[in-house]
Specification:
The chain is α+β, with helices and mostly antiparallel strands and about 425 residues long. It is built from twelve helices and 25 strands. The chain has helices at about 10-25, 55-65, 75, 80-85, 100-105, 105-115, 130-135, 160-175, 240-260, 295-300, 305-315, 390-400; strands spanning about 5-10, 30-35, 45, 65-70, 90, 120-125, 140-145, 155-160, 185-190, 195-200, 205-215, 215-220, 225, 230-235, 265-275, 280-285, 300-305, 325, 330-335, 350, 360-365, 365-370, 375, 380-390, 410. A hairpin with a 2-residue loop joins strand 15 (about 265-275) and strand 16. The protein is globular and about 60 Å long. The two termini are about 35 Å apart.
Length: about 425
Amino acid sequence: MGMKILVIGSGGREHALCWRVLADRPDADLYCAPGSSLISRIASLVPLAADDISGLVDWAAGNRPDLVIVGPEDPCALGLTDRLAESGIRAFGPSAAATRLESSKAWTTELLDRAGVPIPDSAVFDSPADAHAYVEDCIDPLVVKADGLALGKGVLVCDTPDDAHAAIDAIMVERAFGDAGSSVVIQERCYGPELSVFAICAGAGFRIIGSARDYKRAHDGDLGLNTGGVGAYSPVADADADLLHDVADRIIGPTLRAAADAGHPFTGVLYAGLMLTADGPVVIEFNIRFGDPEAQVILPTMRGDLVAAMLAAIDGDVTTVDLEPDGTAAVCVVLASGGYPGSYITGRTIDGLDALPPGSLAFHAGTEMRDDGLYTAGGRVLGIVGTGPDVPAARANAYAAVDKVTFQDCQWRRDIAEAEQVLPSQPQPVVPA
């Protein structure tokens, strides 16, 4: 029997993490908490919720896993990695304090501003009245963000001042995102393609391990509400060596040093959500974990040992991290319940997963296996991933697989990676600290 590894979480990202761990370590004794009925096919389930911090710590203390991989952000924000470290358990994920890079947009905005990291013009408000007064003095379109964690949905892109006023009321007065809306960050609206860059980090040290482009709006043409992510692809044509070195030098490095100087060194995966403006890359957000669905295209196209890289980061040394893109491409199309990210109905029968064509994978985000078959159990239901030698080939495989899967009221975007150019079949550069 190999290493005992526990993955925390239950969605498509965690399914992909479990899949990748077993690809690298087929002899691993793999567990997942709480997992899902489909993850149970490759890992033993631990019936504890991802936010049951005391229960997870007690389980780890009794079962002594060699590694705990924390998938979602909430357990980190609640102090899971801190508690595990106190119990002598090696856990891959940031401390609760360092998690503020994602869990508090206000804290992060002020940190980045002090560090000189490029961000949009920004202002932070605790008072709805002050936020409304600020909007009255603005001419350019704005983005209004709930300060705290909101499942990727707390960012409202506003075309007009009236839109911005409505967003402030929705977040701060109506509390559409609960306590996440106690403060807001208001930023100028930037323009350009988005890019997600991922780095394995240990304090101020890091290695960039890949990039992806994701799609947050629910409908084709970037229309509809922001979601937790409805598609992604990797590699990205404009993420060349020069750009990644610029991101390393001007964004990731200074951010990690600023966090460490503030007394909150960061260990884990740092996901920089960037916009490539005419003036260069600008930080739109940071996440403190593999993105979802970005993980579903990064992990299948990565060369190296993920577990070894995580252990190296926990030990504080990323110089031995050997993860890099393997030169292939992947495209993920999320199949969602009709109405997502608004109200939707679950319990729809899913058919066709046994007929997926070659060059495709299915990662389960919101499904449930019952005695009589597979059913929908969430907003984002499946991540259908196509792989291939380049993005167009991977895209063709992804949509060929999408055509095989059916459930009532299924919705998906038809324009994921539509305009991406063909890239040479070679690895992208890996940028060391």
